[in-house]
Amino acid sequence: MELILSAGIGALTASGVYLLLRPRTYQVIIGLSLLSYAVNLFIFGMGRLRVNAPPIVEPGGGGDLARYTDPLPQALVLTAIVIGFAMTALFLVVILASRGFTGTDHVDGREQRGD
Amino acid sequence: MLLIFLLAPFGGSLLVLFFPSDQRGATAWFAGAIAFVCFLLAAGIYPFVTAGGVLRFELDWIPELGLNLTLRMDGFAWLFATLITAIGVLVVLYARYYMAAEDPIPRFFALFLAFMGSMLGVVLSGNLILLAVFWELTSIVSFLLIGYWHHNAHARDGARIALTMTGMGGLSMLIGLLLIGRVVGSYELDAVLASGDAIRNDPLYLPILILILFGALTKSAQFPFHFWLPHAMAAPTPVSAYLHSATMVKAGVFLLARLWPVMAGTEAWFWIVGLAGLSTLLLGAYFAIFQQDLKGLLAYSTISHLGLITVLLSLGSPLAAVAAVFHIVNHATFKASLFMAAGIIDHETGTRDMRRLSGLFRYMPITATLAMVASAAMAGVPLLNGFLSKEMFFAEAIETHLVNSLDTITPYVATIAGMFAVTYSLRFIHSVFFGAPPADLPKRPHEPPRWMRAPIEFLVLACLIVGIIPGRTIGPFLHTAVVSILGDRTPDYSLAVWHGWNVPLIMSFVALSGGVGLYFLMRSYLATGIEGPPVFRLLQGQRIFERVLVTLSWKWARSLEQRFGTRRLQPQMLLLVFLAVSAAAVPLFRRGFELPPLVIRGIDPAFALLWALGIACAVGAAYQAKFHRLFALVLLGGAGLITCITFVWLSAPDLAVTQLLVEIVTTVLILLGLRWLPKRIEESRPEDIPLRVRFRRLRDFLLALAAGGGMSLIAYRVMTQPTPETIASYFVERAYSEGGGANVVNVILVDFRGFDTLGEVAVLSIVALTVFALLLRFRPHPDSQDIPLQQRVQNAFDDDHPDRNAGDSIAEYLHIPSTIMRWMFPVTGMLAAYLFLRGHDLPGGGFAAGIAMSIGFLLQYMAGGTRWVEERLRIHPLRWMSIGLLVAAATGIGSWVFGYPFLTSHSQYATLPIVGKVPLASAILFDLGVFSLVLGATVLMLIALAHQSVRAPRAHARPARTEREAAQ
Q1: How far apart are the first and last CA of chain A?
Q2: Four-residue CA torsion sign, B92, B98, B99, B101
């Protein structure tokens, strides 16, 4: 389980980082999204992987952590998903506006030789 | 009590700003009243500070950092406070008549009072950090006052130079004070003053000394940092009289005197302070002789006198310290009056140029007499106060303090400087008041108004009285001040006019007669009217300063930027990723990273298959993102779905729900954006790609592999570790009992960490507004302005068939799905309500519900088109957002009403008809705010983007039509 998830995180990170270094804005936005999946899964994984133990306690009385998965990374990731969404939206609009102003979708706002 | 010294000027400064600008009299009266109240207060406090008494006021500010609002008044601080307030009153009176009608008076007096407050703060601070704060305040206010006539380029330059120099000095002094605090263990002045030996014997002594001296010497305009002061003369004359002669420049010597008990007496102190002081004393006096501007002469003379005080402080003997304090007072008295006299001459004649002024005695005899007495005091003529302190200085100069060359030359330098002082004083008087009547003055000179002269009269009277009967007038006050600095080391001294025939008197005599002789020798040279002293005028401080500044801030910065900077994003990203990878890799390998054994057993094949698909999606998206955007988007969605399933699989239903919904919205957003990007066709022949590009791709690929591999290793290593003790159990245990909800994740978000969530949704709304604002001004590229190809084909089809109307095909396109989508609206609404209500106990919550609801709207837009929806539904995303934010914040504030901290929640269950039992914590109200805000923000972003398609063809069509009209 851990092995597969970490391989997945690695693949998402590698794809994301590669795209981050590309010259086209669209590549960068896809890369950022992939990278944010990887980071979210990574943070989530910090609470260890448990199957069938969602952090939903019995109503009435306190819960015992041994019976549930760690809720804290989940709360963090939930926030991260929201912020990631906001970031993607903002970035998308910025690249559209940049394309409108500069006429190119290169990350520098102008074409570089050899790309 | 001491606090009034600060509150009154600063409070008054604020109030003065509200005075109408034509009420010159009232404004001046008010400012003067405040200064006078402070003066009376100082006078009233006097009995408490005699004989070494100290008044204290303490207010905890940040006690953890040793930073307290400690005010401390001892005799020395008292003397300074009196000086500041008394001269403050006089300067206000003077400024009332000096300032012209068109000057913005409230601003002047507001800054003036603020300066008085800052200066009082400097002298009253009982805490080193507080001292630094007020010190900086004096620099800033001085900057504003020098630049008061900001339409004048000289004033702006002078202000800038002064701020740069004193600001740099202040920064260095702050570091020095922090180091002192480190050595002593406290920033309190009392503690610092008590640990002189510890500071002097500390290895950090020399750096501390240099840093603090840099601050003090720049402030007091000591050579080689003196050049800012003459440029500061662009300020209105009351400012020059107050800040740049009587008070602010004294802050430097104040600090030297304040720290004298703990820092002085060492070889380093003697050399640095002494050398700076002596050279300033001599050069300042020498430069002063050659000035053509009245205020310039006075400025250089001020520099020279400050040098004299610095020399006295450098000597390290108690008697010299007494002389220094005495001279501070004396100099303030005669120099302030001289500045005011110079201001009157400027005011009544319209010029300050000594080449044009002459023979003014016959027009303004009273002012001339006053100025003559004051400059005689400046020159050190007997029976005036300047003579006494100069005599003490000469006496100290002959004493041997340390056996070295500097100490040997001191008396000679002192005599020569004294001679120069006589020369420039004489020049000031002789060239302005005597000689032929002035020829071409801008105004016809006459005596100033009665009350404009009054401050000078008062000050000159003080010079005379102190000069004739020092022991009975200034004596006790001086003693009080000296005792507070020197304590038990206070020497016996006598303030008498006549000490018998001794060496200092001979020195005075030499200086006086030499000075007079020098003046008559130099008259012919001075008459040539060349500005500045011979040789030295080529070496202009300001020029050098400007050049250094340009080199530092422009040339070097530019070449640095060219060498190490880039405006291109890719190298920056490369560096960033590289640094991030190294930052993780280096410590891991230095501490020894061991990989746990790989556990192949126990893997669910379904999970493995899932991630095989996920990895394929990720790699595919990376591969296709350049030429096949839509495909890459689909693959990205695939990777997102795999992530979502992983969340479900591994017990995170909340994340799964949110991820799924966000995934949908993100995909739609990007889809909407796709049409505005340029078309890109893949190169048919991959072998055409240049080698450089191939190399770059390979390099990026390897870096990406390193990053991905590293993440995998770290993730695997951590996830196979047993869980350490975490704070999670706190949340799990109390989620229900204190948060009133069973869904721990939701309770954390809306209750335990509710404030974070409030911030987070605020960020979301800011982003939405930014998106909205950016799109308001959106101008698409000409390539993308036409309607899309598919719609053109559909319209062409309509045109070809006579039985069809234009637009039919577009309307009929995907008719059945869009009908279904329309019907889905209530269903999505229901889903959103369901998610919302169960949120506190089961997966769901305001955020998920908000996104779900926005998807409901989105479907309508997709199904019916922008216009169709907006004809039928009222969509006010901005309103929803603001209501949401207000509700969320109000819920938080609501708990204040019941006496709990912000965002404390209260929980209860309520039974609603049909729906059944729902949790009704006050958190649900907060969640409702989140819901409304998220809904508004998401819808705002989506429809802002969707509107572009509606708007763009219209915006494009309009210029075309005008062109056609123009052609007809």
Answers
A1: 40
A2: positive
* Residue whose tokens read 């801030």: B553
Residue B846 and residue B928 in contact, taking contact as beta carbons nearer than 8 Å: yes
H helices of B151-204, in order, are 153-184, 189-193, 196-200
> ipTM > 0.90?
yes
- If you average pLDDT over residues B632-656, what whole number do you get? 91
Check B678 against A13: CB less than 8 A apart: no
B493, B487 Cβ separation under 8 angstroms: no
Question: What is the helix (H) or strand (E) element at residue B630, kind and residue range?
Answer: helix B629-649
- CA B564 from chain centre, in angstroms, equals 27
Beta-strand pair B909-912/B67-73: unpaired
Strand partners, B293: B353
Strand partners, B69: B59
Q: Quote the pTM value.
A: 0.64
Q: Would you say B887 and B932 are in contact if contact means Cβ atoms under 8 Å apart?
A: yes
Residue of A nearest to B639 (CA): A34
Query: What tens digit of pLDDT does each residue of B929-967 get?
Result: 889 999 999 999 888 888 877 765 544 444 444 444 444
Instruction: Indicate yes or no: CB of A89 within 8 angstroms of CB of B729.
Output: no
Are A17 and B577 inside 8 Å of each other by CB? yes
Tell if the CB–CB gap between A72 and B726 is shorter than 8 Å: yes
At B904 the three-state DSSP class reads: coil
Tell me phi and psi for residue B60, to 5 degrees.
-65, 135
Q: At what angle do helices B128-146 and B205-219 cross, to 10 degrees?
A: 30
Say whether B787 sits in a helix, a strand or coil. coil
Q: Determine the average pLDDT of the residues in B117-127.
A: 90
For residue B553, give how far its alpha carbon lies from the nearest alpha carbon of chain A (Å): 26
Residue A48: its pLDDT value, please? 83
Collapsing DSSP to helix, strand or coil, A56 comes out as strand
Task: Give the CA angle between residues B217, B158, B121 to the nearest 5°.
Answer: 50
Nearest residue in chain A measured CA to CA from B577 = A17
Minimum distance, in Å, between the CA of residue A89 and any CA atom of chain B: 7
**Residue B653 — φ and ψ, nearest 5°?**
-60, -35
Q: What is the pLDDT of residues A55-88, one digit of tens each?
A: 877 776 666 767 788 888 888 998 899 889 999 9
Strand partners, B62: B67
Measured distance CA(B235)–CA(B244) in Å, rounded: 9
Cis peptide bond upstream of B382, omega within 30: no
Q: Which two tokens stand for residue B131?
A: 């001292």
How far apart are alpha carbons B36 and B26 in whole angstroms?
15
